[in-house]
Amino acid sequence: MSPAATGAVSGVLSALEGGAATVHEAAHRAGVSLELAELAIDTLIRMGRIDATTLATGCPSGGCRTCASGVADQPGCGASAPSPARQGPVLVALRLRPPD
User: Fold this and answer.
1) According to DSSP H, which parts of the chain are helical?
2) pTM above 0.85, yes or no
3) Are the C-beta atoms of 20 and 50 separated by less than 8 Å?
4) Which of 10, 15, 38, 82 would staple 59 via disulfide (CB 3.0–4.6 Å)?
């Protein structure tokens, strides 16, 4: 890893440890671009320094007919049922892992 990449990873980790709540905020605090912050986070996940968990969002437990985006008792997204293949944005929670 290049010295610049190492510095970005360290800076983003410090930003997250300091309470940065979003990737944008971590990038700003670390003084790196959003793209570099995203790459640093991917590296930190691979290194085991942070965990990334996909948050359960999307379809309600009551099914499509109970979806708030539905109109006239029809699914809001136009699907007949939730898709097994997730598409679109996914919300991910990052959590710092304590050092071993």
Assistant:
1) 3-17, 23-30, 34-47
2) no
3) no
4) 82
